[in-house]
Design goal:
Distance between the termini: 14 Å
Number of helices: 5
Radius of gyration: 16 Å
Order of helices and strands: HHHHH
Number of domains: 1
Largest sheet: none
Length: 135
């Protein structure tokens, strides 16, 4: 089993693009601001630190997905993009979605905010997995 580092780096780039679109003016930023109580000014002020954290988080996610896809491919002999998407879906469902649901429920976050953030994570995991699976 090995990690395709080029595919992993491309997945990180795709992940950053997904985040940029999802939480942009063409995505959900206006609803997200309202639901979180953040303002455009506060968001912009925190942006450099947040972008660095996002890059680190997306990098760890991409490496984890690449490893999971590599292990699953080696175990099954299936190197298809479909298998990579399945691994991404399972990783999202069992790690990301459940964590967001649990934390947001106890923190009394609005259900719509949970849906927006879970939706973002789903698209992120699937996009990264697809890029890794295509290589």
């Amino acid at each position: 089993m090995g990690i395709n580092w080029l595919a992993t780096v491309l997945a990180i780039v795709v992940g950053m693009a997904v985040a940029g679109l999802w939480y942009s003016k063409v995505g959900f930023v206006f609803v997200w601001w309202r639901l979180t109580g953040l303002t455009p000014e506060r968001s912009k002020k925190a942006s450099p630190r947040n972008m660095a954290q996002l890059l680190v988080a997306n990098s760890v996610t991409a490496v984890g997905l690449a490893a999971g896809i590599g292990i699953t491919s080696a175990a099954t002999g299936d190197e298809s993009a479909g298998l990579a998407l399945l691994v991404g879906l399972v990783a999202w469902l069992t790690i990301s979605a459940t964590t967001l649901l649990q934390h947001n429920a106890f923190e009394l976050k609005p259900p719509k905010l949970t849906l927006i953030n879970c939706g973002y994570q789903l698209v992120l995991f699937l996009a990264m997995s697809l890029v890794i699976g295509l290589f």
